[in-house]
Automatic annotation (TrEMBL):
Pfam short name (any one): SDF
Top-rank taxon, per record: Eukaryota
Organism: Brassicogethes aeneus
Keyword Membrane: yes
Keyword terms: Glycoprotein, Membrane, Symport, Transmembrane, Transmembrane helix, Transport
Name assigned to this protein: Amino acid transporter
């Protein structure tokens, strides 16, 4: 007997089960058939699995879309400042949570990561990382110069009269000052102060009394004095440097340091579990941040119409580097499909875009590198915290394009020498920039002074920096991730050797412990005597 059940899904399975039970109870050899198509079930299962694995990414992208739609949709209502603050408030809390996690995450990851490797391997990884960051920053600066020269986004017709925001008679910062501040922050004089203050060079207006030989009287002269001051903000560079040295030396102490290493490893695991919970707030936080930012901009259409070519040049450079140059680097050095790696980092890219900070996106980046793209934890713990502070590929690109853009607006002709200067000063400035929003605009003033270009039009870029900053931040974040993958590949032999040494060390320690245990058992050795017929007593 054949029973045909024309149904789908769970109903079909339920009927199959009932008919099968009836057939078995009556000892009837019934053959149960279902006309449901198994191909569709498998296809639906595959779709559900993909949605389940990428649910966070889907809702995050949905949050971005809702934020953009909400921002532009509510602009016509001309909301009050208080209303905009309330819309931005969830995003503000989300940013504060991410920033709360950053410092313990960096400290625990660097100490645990550097301690898990030997000092020689730490040095090699650090050297490869720094060389990679330098070369990619130079590449971005050169790319920015080429694009700005070819596209020519600047036009003297766009120049409008604006007030100079810098105070008169106040000396501008120099690239040299920025580099010296970089060194001062790397070598912090107080590790506790580094958690909330950074050193920086400032120029202040003052007076100086001088003696006039002709009149025989003292005169008061206005002078500009250079001072080293401290400003609020975490000195992450100093903390990174201290943790690297601390962790490297800790790794040389052997078993005596095991408790301390385990302590920081457990802290890292706890922080990452916190991240796994916080990360689900991303869709709401990102939607709030984007909507609030769009509502706070005075006139988006006017800004885009005036600076559209500049915005397009920077964004085109960002995607050209991400989709072609970066993928080529990954394929050449790693030898795998680069776009699969790129797609695995989309969640981090969206977070970096929304927060405009590589440091704020660092917790999410760690999760993706460990769980999605599977890069060695020892390398990611080492490379990512360093990269989020000194690797500013997008910033180098932006500064190069912005420098030439402002020169073109003012009718300044730049020769080969000036273009080379833009490349190197943009690279140097990007290394000394902090991983906070809009830091590039401050460094842009220094680069303009190096090529003798008027800087009064820099304030024009403040109107679009909220948008451009987000695109260049994605370059910075992805650059850190690709650097970790390349460094892992270049250091594969050393990592395998380190694993072998650790296995031998663990085996030796277990052998010693076993021998000590045998010695402890010798006084109470158990003797088994044999008896006929296999009996024992």
């Amino acid at each position: 007997m054949i029973i045909s059940v024309k149904s789908k899904g769970n109903l079909c399975k339920f009927k199959d089960y009932l008919f099968a039970q009836m057939s078995s109870d009556t000892n009837d050899a019934a053959k149960v058939e279902c006309t449901d198509q198994p191909g569709k079930n498998e296809e639906l299962t595959g779709v559900r699995k993909w949605v389940s694995e990428n649910l966070l990414l889907i809702v995050t992208l949905l949050g971005v879309a809702i934020g953009i739609a909400t921002g532009f949709g509510l602009r016509s209502l001309q909301l009050s400042e208080s209303s905009i603050v309330m819309i931005s408030y969830p995003g503000e809390l989300f940013m504060r949570i991410l920033k709360l996690i950053i410092l313990p995450l960096i400290i625990s990851s660097l100490i645990a990561g550097s301690a898990s490797l030997n000092a020689r391997l730490n040095g090699r990884i650090a050297l490869r990382t720094l060389v990679y960051f330098f070369l990619t920053s130079v590449t971005n600066a050169i790319l920015g110069v080429i694009l700005a020269t070819v596209i020519h986004p600047g036009d003297q017709g766009l120049k409008i009269s604006i007030e100079k925001e810098m105070a008169p008679n106040k000396k501008k910062g120099l690239v040299l000052d920025s580099l010296l501040d970089l060194g001062r922050n790397i070598v912090a004089d107080n590790i506790f102060q580094a958690t909330f203050q950074q050193a920086h060079t400032d120029y202040v207006n003052g007076t100086e009394r001088r003696f006039n030989m002709e009149t025989g009287e003292s005169e008061v002269h206005n002078v500009i004095a250079r001072e080293i001051k401290y400003r609020l903000g975490t000195n992450t560079l100093g903390i990174v440097f201290f943790c690297l040295i601390f962790g490297t030396i800790l790794g040389t102490l052997g078993q005596r340091a095991k408790v301390v290493i385990d302590f920081f490893s457990v802290i890292f695991e706890v922080i990452m579990k916190m991240v796994n919970g916080v990360i689900w707030l991303t869709p709401v936080g990102i939607s709030s941040v984007i909507a609030g930012k769009i509502l706070s901009v005075s006139d988006v259409a006017l800004v885009i119409s005036q600076l559209g070519w500049f915005i397009a040049t920077v964004i085109f450079g960002v995607f050209l580097y991400q989709l072609i140059i970066m993928q080529l680097i990954y394929f050449v050095f790693v030898g795998k499909n680069p776009f699969k790696f790129y797609v695995g980092l989309i969640q981090g890219t969206v977070t970096a875009f929304a927060t405009a900070s590589t440091a704020a996106a660092l917790p999410v980046t760690f999760t993706l590198m460990d769980e999605k793209v599977k890069v060695d934890q020892r390398v990611t713990r080492f490379v990512l915290p360093i990269g989020c502070n000194i690797n500013m590929d997008g910033t180098a690109l932006f500064i190069a394009v912005a420098s030439i853009f402002i020169a073109q607006m003012n009718g300044v002709q730049l020769g080969i020498g000036e273009l080379v200067t833009v490349c190197f000063t943009s690279t140097a400035a990007s290394f000394s920039s902090a991983s906070v929003p809009s830091a590039a605009l401050v460094l842009l003033l220094m680069v303009l002074s190096a090529i003798d270009t008027p800087d009064q039009d820099v304030s024009l870029l403040f109107a679009v920096d909220w948008l451009v900053d987000r695109f260049r931040t994605t370059n910075n974040m992805l650059g850190d991730c690709y650097a970790a993958a390349v460094v892992e590949k270049l250091s594969k032999k050393e990592l395998m050797a380190c694993d072998a040494i650790q296995e031998l060390s663990t085996g030796f320690d277990n052998h010693i412990s076993s021998n000590n245990l045998d010695k402890d058992l010798e006084p109470t050795e158990i003797v088994i005597q044999s008896f006929p017929n296999g009996a024992t007593n």
